[in-house]
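User: Just a sanity check before I run the rest of the batch. Below are the structure tokens for the first item. I only need the designed sequence back.
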């Protein structure tokens, strides 16, 4: 089984000085993948229960969440063996030209 590290680029891990350190440490610890999430909007209260938690989003609604493609482009030179990908990508928030360009620049 391969285990991935999710949530690089959210909260304290959105700080540029920490990103490459986290990526390198995750690889050294044996994580196979790095995942960067994207949330375009966070709300104060959900009408339904948020999945995989106590029912609430597991962070404050004003938590910083970096763009996953920019985050991964910055992190890319650090890990030598780990794979990396966005945890999600909100396609309606991008133009049909900007997403491929962002992806191309993040993958080299």
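Assistant: Here's the designed sequence for the first item:
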């Amino acid at each position: 089984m391969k285990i991935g590290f999710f949530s690089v680029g959210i909260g304290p891990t959105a700080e540029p000085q920490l990103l490459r350190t986290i990526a390198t440490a995750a690889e050294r610890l044996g994580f196979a993948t790095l995942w960067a999430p994207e949330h375009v909007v966070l709300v104060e209260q959900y009408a339904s229960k948020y999945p995989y938690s106590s029912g609430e989003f597991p962070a404050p609604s004003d938590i910083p969440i970096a763009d996953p493609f920019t985050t991964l482009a910055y992190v890319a030179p650090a890990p030598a063996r780990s794979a990396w990908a966005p945890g999600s990508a909100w396609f309606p928030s991008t133009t049909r030209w900007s997403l491929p360009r962002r992806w191309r620049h993040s993958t080299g």
